[in-house]
Amino acid sequence: MSAPAAKVSKKELNSNHDGADETSEKEQQEAIEHIDEVQNEIDRLNEQASEEILKVEQKYNKLRQPFFQKRSELIAKIPNFWVTTFVNHPQVSALLGEEDEEALHYLTRVEVTEFEDIKSGYRIDFYFDENPYFENKVLSKEFHLNESGDPSSKSTEIKWKSGKDLTKRSSQTQNKASRKRQHEEPESFFTWFTDHSDAGADELGEVIKDDIWPNPLQYYLVPDMDDEEGEGEEDDDDDEEEEGLEDIDEEGDEDEGEEDEDDDEGEEGEVSNLALHAIQVVFETDLVRRQSHSDKGELVLFCTLRCENCDCINLSGFR
């Protein structure tokens, strides 16, 4: 006959449970301390990585400078390049009024300069031709981070010509029909140069530096891409409507007419097209280092567009 099972009192059960809880809490606390130690190591590596990335950025910023300069020279050959680029950018265009666009037609060059210590900030320069709005040839805005990491900004004071201050639009001459439209129009783009209230949240500066400046051509070409799509759709419709109604001779006449129109393009248009192509070469190149007969290294850019009439751009002296 088996011995009767020993009875365990409720007090003993609670005592065992409390002991297990104490052990579990101690293990958890030790685990938390170890996690904190490991996390400190991860943070240390992250800081080290940031320093290394900063060095790489500084290195390649210097290497990019001659290409930015070459691009600016090519852009200068295209009328209204920058105002078109800004108008085609969804975020920037939302800040532009009609008068802003008129003033930006005199904008000839934009440059973004990151300070040697990239973390400390950057500057955006806008170069203008003589215009009826202000006396300045260059408008600049700088963004800085002080030693404590607080952001700040400063900019050029705009010397407006009499009655041309776009930041002080007057509604006195507006009639009732246009007053509502004026109310809906955004503040002037040029108020950005006087707004230093929150430099750390300056979206326009960040958009220009990080989105437009690296590749402005993609926004300049937006309308051309739309036009090409529209022309393609029109051609499809014409083919369907005229199928079987025109003979080969008539089609040949149309082709000759189109060629005549192409021949009538002005010299300025031809220069613009060549400049656009050259900019595409700068953006779509393979960098190849070759050795010349004198064993001097030179940097050669080869056009990846594979066109027959395009000469390779050779920038000697850059190693």
UniProtKB/TrEMBL annotation:
Q: Name one GO cellular component term.
A: nucleus
Choose any GO biological process term that the UniProt entry carries and state it: nucleosome assembly
Q: Where is the composition biased (Basic and acidic residues)?
A: 9-31, 156-168
Q: What is its main location?
A: cytoplasm
Q: Highest taxon of the source?
A: Eukaryota
Residues of the signal peptide: none
Compartments (UniProt record): Cytoplasm; Nucleus
Q: Where in this protein does the record put region Disordered?
A: 1-31, 145-194, 226-270
Record keywords = Cytoplasm, Nucleus
InterPro entries for this protein: NAP-like_sf, NAP_family
Task: Report the family membership.
Answer: Belongs to the nucleosome assembly protein (NAP) family.
What is the designated name of this protein? Protein SET
Q: Which organism is it from?
A: Catharus ustulatus (Russet-backed thrush)
